[in-house]
Design brief:
Radius of gyration: 19 Å
Strand content: 15-25%
CATH architecture of one domain: 3-Layer(aba) Sandwich
Structural class: alpha/beta
Oligomer: single chain
Largest sheet: 6 strands, mixed
CATH superfamily of one domain: P-loop containing nucleotide triphosphate hydrolases
Length: about 290
Amino acid sequence: MTAPLLSIRDLRVTFPTRQGEFQAVRGVSFDLGRERLGVVGESGSGKSMTGRAILGLVRPPGRVTAARMDLDGQPILNLPERRMRAIRGGRISMVMQDPKFSLNPVMRVGQQIIEAYRLHAGGGRAQARAKAMEMLAAVQIRDPERVFDLYPHEVSGGMGQRIMIAMMLAPDPEILIADEPTSALDVSVRAEVLNIMDALVRDRGMGLIFISHDLNLVAQFCDRVLIMYAGRVVEELPARDLHAARHPYTRGLLDSLPRLDAPVDRLAVLEREESWRTEAIEGSMLDAQPGGLR
């Protein structure tokens, strides 16, 4: 039995407010193998905060606690910043939602990839430049030499997203967290970016946490899905079974989507229930072995 790359139990992220403590993430637990794990839910459900907590990016006064947060069997919860920097980007990388805010606007994109690679993998500048060119070609940028010398404002949204993926994968991490990586892209570019991520993750045997609002996209692209509501996982199931989900929150999200094969006069409105904040997870697979790559 293969051990999971990442194992998390009872993850909580708490922030102090004038009304008392607010839990942005409340008791999230999951295992990640060499697979594509989708995390879906509405804005504010705790998806992105879960990813940031894994990478140690929640700053004071925010507080992160967990019964367990292990990477390859080693605890990584609340490590000293120096040790966490070696993991962040080197072993676990994160593609943020909008590359325009993630790339340094005053550095050429090639230099940013070189910096990320040398920080974690070392090597000389010539080796790092060759790696940057290799990664730009891997994300299907046709003219890596030209793009290498561009500034972020000189590239399109789709190319910026590809550059971010190239930068995050250059140090050969074990896990990639992709936070809404295609939300700002048109349909054709989105398909290309997904195909690139799919091939790179499959070929490298990585684990992928794919954060998204798009249930249909996650059902097609991922192996397993976590449904989050109000900081909790309310349902966990294989991606192929997403449209047969049982939890009323998941059903409400699915019913609110327009469908060409089943047109309706009026889309359903999601009616929330207070019990969703506290009830047990349905369809939990936490004791099951994480799935492999398809």
